[in-house]
Recover the amino acids of this structure.
């Protein structure tokens, strides 16, 4: 008897609640409004910048917080540069700025106004591959290929640095002037900022060595 009463009472409460909600006695839940602080305001202040990417000039209006990586991918449409860790640890987003390699995920676009930027798309000349690109293919310096654009951009800069005589942490004699020989250990050190989750490091080292000889 008590069980049936409780069931009947529960059913009555359900019906009353539904009717009350329908006629507006119980206020309906409203969607939370976004906060109006400056970090979420859609019309936040923007800056006008000019980027020269792969020989082409782009005039853009960007927010100060937008990274160079996002500008390249989302605004300019050059998706060869990859998003990896977002913390400057994997190197997948490596591009060349005024000839030097940087992690574009850590770089703000407004910092590179009027800079010369080269991405993986800008290395080849038409259908002719850059020597480093060709060497990566020949030496199986990739597997899934996700890290490869950053690896190749980094390799181009690493070779240029060695030719300019820039020492690394493993250079035997930092007092020696002139080009640094790119031995296997030098290549591993200079490419250590670019990670390959597939583990294609043997092919990468061979590709960088062959590419450096092609450019010598």
């Amino acid at each position: 008897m008590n069980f049936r009463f409780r069931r009947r009472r529960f059913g009555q409460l359900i019906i009353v609640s539904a009717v009350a909600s329908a006629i507006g006695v119980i206020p309906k839940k409203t969607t939370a409004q976004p906060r109006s602080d400056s970090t979420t305001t859609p019309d936040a202040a923007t800056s006008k910048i000019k980027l020269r990417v792969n020989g082409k000039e782009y005039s853009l209006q960007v927010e100060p917080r937008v990274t160079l990586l996002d500008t390249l991918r989302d605004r300019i449409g050059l998706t060869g540069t990859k998003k990896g860790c977002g913390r400057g640890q994997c190197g997948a987003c490596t591009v060349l700025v005024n000839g030097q390699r940087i992690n574009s995920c850590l770089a703000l676009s407004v910092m590179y106004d009027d800079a010369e930027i080269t991405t993986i798309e800008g290395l080849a000349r038409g259908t002719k591959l850059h020597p480093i690109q060709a060497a990566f293919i020949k030496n199986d310096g990739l597997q899934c290929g996700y890290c490869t654009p950053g690896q190749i951009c980094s390799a181009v800069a690493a070779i240029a640095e060695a030719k300019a005589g820039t020492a690394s942490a493993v250079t035997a004699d930092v007092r020696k002037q002139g080009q640094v020989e790119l031995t296997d250990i030098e290549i591993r050190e200079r490419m250590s900022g670019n990670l390959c989750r597939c583990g294609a490091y043997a092919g990468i080292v061979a590709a960088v060595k062959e590419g450096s000889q092609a450019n010598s």
About this structure: Helices lie at 2-23, 68-75, 131-138, 148-163, 184-190, 201-214. The two ends are 96 Å apart (CA to CA). Strands lie at 47-53, 56-62, 94-97, 100-103, 116-118. The longest strand covers residues 47-53.
